[in-house]
Specification:
heterodimer; A: about 550 residues; alpha+beta; Dipeptide-binding Protein, domain 1; D-Maltodextrin-Binding Protein, domain 2; Dipeptide-binding Protein, domain 3; 3 domains; seven-stranded mixed sheet; five-stranded mixed sheet; 22 strands; B: about 350 residues; mainly alpha; MetI-like fold; 2 domains; two-stranded antiparallel sheet; 14 helices
Chain lengths: ~550, ~350
């Protein structure tokens, strides 16, 4: 039987030798990915990987650049009516789809209307929230009419990739738009779909007709790995050229390799970790939406939350959990959003004495000497439930670290990871928890994060803390209508300051994006941009193969 | 009872089991917490209107079954709804029409996804099983024949070690070894291979199959070897073997004609059970080598509360376990004539 095995090995080796014998190999960049797209139909896709592929295959009115700003992609000019309700866009002429058909304003209008009409497009639909109508009076003009003057039309359009009407018109009605697999993924971006094997790989070829210049690459391959060990090992052995999501624990190993460069910094889509307090008031509990509001009463006291903020050693959390690859979190808007981030906020500096003093002053004393403080009326000790989604591998360590420092100020935690759906079920609008560890991903515009702590979002369940502050709500409404950019920035900063002062959340950190690429096959890596995004179209267009 | 009656009885029980699984599958996953329309994802862009629209598209706006609007959270509803308008009846009806539904997560027919994944899993497990059975049996027979010699003890020790190796760990060790010896360590084909001649595509597949198959073979081979050895040792100590020896039969004849048929019985059971269960995917091996098989699909489906995928995949697993057991019963009655009368 051993012979059979040897024979098998021999067969495999002989056959594999043939595989490497071919003419001059095309310049193929191979990117290792931990998760592939859930669908090539961007309308129904949830995952960031689907957006990355769309970024490469489609054009959009605006693009998100590596310096974090939004700039015209397909658009060339925009005019806003005086009342701010009508936007007239001019688009590039002569842009071709991958199948040779011309992209006109009609395709743009078709796409926007398609998204507007499909409430069942989970992530895209909200971008067309204020659209009343979209029309294309001629081939290069798109007119968008809104029901409300909004200040951030760019960020509404950046992810609305332009789909070809001649293909999608047969798949636009009802459920057809959701079940259309869109395997050919015809777009007008710098790369076109060559081959897609779900959960295996995606092969993109260069689009020679692309208006923004042609890549020196012939192909880009995204290969999907279900194990991080295999992913990292593949980069080390040269089976792939780039990893866009390097596990923190592998950074040192990869840095030690002379053919590999590790790049880390602010991600293209910044995210934040948050420590979420249940401060939903039982007196105002959203019982119609299933609210229970069982949060610990101490957490509804701002003094307690501020004391806990003082008792949180953010730098230690970053050093241990992220192995240093992140920056201290302050506000609900991450620093990666550039000017929207309020850098003037003075954070609660880690200080256990201050924290203890604050709790003492507020009347939370340890009367029975068991090391845990009690409520001022002695009714119950400060023992908090702490939960996190079990898929989050960093959360248990963060919980341990918090338990350690918070323990020193007389607060005890009962820690338990939960399946994310189970966590959602106790979260909101049920409010049947004390503290949760979770996070958010940011859009380029701060609006999607700022909406979370508004009173209106309590019944919908997005307001995880149950925070309600009329001043904040007013500012949220106002910034959503403020067309003067500088004034809007000011309001957004003020909102962050309010949240920081009231502490419905403690933001421990903003994690860095960590990518790693080989240096022996391609040059021209955009390693030093404001944002780390080596899989971004502009970064791929800059790459040159080493002969 | 003759063989025909036995067959009928077993077939009936198998069908009953499958029917039970169909019903259980439906309710089991709906008892789990979670909202498929949110897919476990936190995204402020997901508006309440959108969640409602998704529920409608998935058919989750209809009552689960008469009197029950949803099971978790438990919400009672009207009992006088048309049963044809309940999720349960629609599910059973579609199942009988051969429609497993559309995956919430991939927005593709479950049938298509299962077919893709099943073929990959069968390829890996089929090859691994054949090798494990052949090598394990031969090794076991050899060890039993050379009982209480150095060869036997050597076989026993390697068998026990191989069997106790954690599959995941063995896979990672082989992965590190293979990656530095030119073996691909992820997926089942090299991207771009589809434009090459068929022979090269097969070669590419063989290369990709090598590491996962070896991992699988080592673990299962050891199990088969140990069972084969001990069961054969039992048989070899029987009086009739002594008689056969006394008659002057060769070792080969004793093994082939007298010992093996009886010694095979426990092995057949284990193989059948393994075959049935492994259709569910050898999730550890699949995940180490990024093999696009059923195991990974199941894992994702659980994470995403993807009811149609879960129902389809568990039905498939249930059917394979039942069928494998059915076949084992048949083989049993062939190997051991006493079973027919029992």
């Amino acid at each position: 039987m051993k012979k059979l095995l040897y024979l098998l090995i021999l067969c495999a080796l002989v056959l594999s030798a043939c595989g490497t014998m071919s003419a001059k190999p095309p310049a193929v960049l191979r990117i290792g990915w931990a998760q592939g797209p859930d669908s090539l139909n961007i309308g129904v896709a949830w995952l960031a990987s689907a957006y990355t592929i769309s970024e490469l295959t489609y054009s959009s009115m605006y693009e998100l650049k590596l310096d974090g700003t939004l700039a015209f992609d397909l658009g060339t000019d925009v005019k806003r009516s005086d009342d701010g309700l009508i936007y007239t866009f001019t688009i590039r002429e002569g842009v071709k789809f991958h199948d040779g058909q011309t992209l006109t304003a009609k395709d743009v209008a078709f796409t926007y209307n398609l998204v507007k009409d499909h409430e069942d497009f989970p992530t895209l639909h909200s971008y067309t929230e204020h659209f009343v109508s979209v029309e294309a009076p001629d081939d290069k003009t798109v007119v968008i009419t809104l029901d409300e003057a909004i200040p951030n039309i760019e960020s509404k359009l950046v992810f609305l990739y332009i789909l070809p009407e001649h293909i999608w018109k047969d798949h636009s009605a009802g459920d057809a738009a959701a079940t259309f697999e869109n395997l050919e993924m015809i777009g007008s971006g710098p790369f076109k779909m060559l081959e897609y094997k779900p959960n295996e790989f995606i092969r993109l070829g260069v689009n020679k007709d692309y208006y923004g210049g042609t890549a020196s690459l012939d192909e880009v391959i995204f290969q999907i790995f279900s194990s991080n060990d295999a992913l990292v090992q593949s980069l080390k052995t040269g089976q792939i050229d780039l990893i866009t999501g390097v596990p923190n624990t592998s950074v040192e190993l990869l840095k030690a390799d002379s053919n590999i460069k590790v790049v880390s910094g602010s991600p293209l889509s910044p995210d934040l970790a948050d420590i979420i307090f249940n401060i939903a008031d039982p007196a105002n509990c959203p019982t119609d939406d299933g609210g229970l509001c069982t949060g610990h009463p101490a957490l509804r006291d701002k003094q307690v939350r501020q004391a806990l903020a003082y008792a949180t050693d953010k730098q230690k959390i970053i050093d241990i959990i992220l192995l240093g690859m992140g920056e201290t979190g302050v506000a609900l808007v991450p620093s990666g959003l550039g000017e929207w981030f309020n850098s003037d906020i003075k954070d609660y500096a880690f200080n256990l004495d201050t924290a203890n003093q604050m709790l003492d002053d507020a009347g939370y004393k340890d009367t029975d000497g068991d090391g845990v403080r009690e409520m001022p009326d002695g009714s119950q000790p400060l023992i908090f439930r702490m939960n996190w989604p079990s898929s989050d591998t960093t959360a248990p360590r963060m919980a341990e670290l918090l338990s350690e420092t918070w323990g020193k100020v007389g607060v005890k935690l009962q820690m338990q990871g939960m399946e994310s759906d189970a966590l959602t079920a106790i979260c909101c609008p049920v409010y049947d928890y004390d503290i949760m560890l979770w996070g958010w991903v940011a859009d380029p515009d701060p609006n999607t994060l700022l909406i979370i702590p508004t009173t209106d979002q309590i019944p919908t369940g997005y307001n995880e803390t149950g925070y309600s502050n009329p001043k904040y709500d007013e500012l949220y409404e106002a910034q959503g209508r403020e067309l003067d950019h500088a004034k809007r920035v000011e309001m957004v900063h003020e909102m962050q300051a309010i949240i920081h002062e009231d502490v419905p959340y403690i933001i421990p950190y903003y994690a860095f994006a960590i990518e790693a690429h080989r240096t022996d096959r391609f040059t021209g890596w955009l390693d030093n941009e404001t944002k780390v995004g080596l899989e971004d179209p502009s970064a791929l267009l800059a790459l040159k193969p080493i002969e | 009872m003759n063989r025909w009656h036995l067959l009928q009885k077993k077939a009936l029980w198998s069908l009953f089991t499958i029917a039970f699984v169909i019903v259980l599958n439906f309710f089991l996953f709906r008892v789990l917490p979670g909202d498929p329309a949110r897919a476990g994802i936190k995204d402020p862009r997901l508006t309440p209107e959108t969640i409602e629209a998704l529920r409608t598209r998935f058919g989750l706006d209809k009552p689960v079954i008469n009197c029950f609007k949803t099971i978790n959270p438990l919400v009672l509803g009207a009992c006088d709804v048309n049963p044809l308008e309940t999720q349960f009846v629609i599910y059973v009806k579609n199942l009988f029409l051969g429609d497993l539904g559309v995956s919430y997560y991939y927005n593709r027919p479950v049938e298509d996804i299962l077919k893709e994944r099943l073929w990959n899993t069968i390829l890996l497990i089929g090859l691994g099983q054949i090798l494990a059975i052949l090598i394990g049996m031969a090794y076991g027979i050899f060890a039993a024949w050379k009982a209480r010699t150095v060869i036997d003890y050597g076989a026993l020790i390697t068998g026990l070690i191989a069997w106790s190796l954690p599959t995941f760990w063995l896979g990672i060790i082989l992965l590190f070894w293979g990656s530095s010896h030119g073996f691909p360590i992820s997926g089942k084909s090299t991207p771009g291979m589809s434009s090459y001649p068929l022979m090269m595509q097969i070669g590419d597949l063989a290369k990709h199959l090598f590491l996962p198959t070896v991992t699988y073979t080592i673990v299962y081979m050891a199990e088969y070897m140990l069972i084969m050895r001990s069961s054969l040792l039992d048989v070899l100590s029987e009086d009739y073997i002594l008689t056969a020896k006394a008659k002057g039969l060769s070792v080969f004849q004793i093994l082939k004609d007298h010992a093996l048929k009886n010694g095979m019985l426990p092995l057949v059971t284990v193989i059948a059970i393994n075959l049935g269960y492994t259709v569910g995917g050898v999730i550890q091996i699949e995940s180490v080598f990024s093999w696009p098989g059923l195991g990974g699909a199941l894992y994702e489906a659980v994470n995403r509360t993807d009811f149609p995928m879960l129902q389809g995949a568990f039905l498939l697993i249930a059917v394979s376990v039942v069928v494998a057991n059915f076949i084992a019963d048949l083989t049993y009655s062939y190997l051991d004539p006493r079973v027919q009368t029992g």
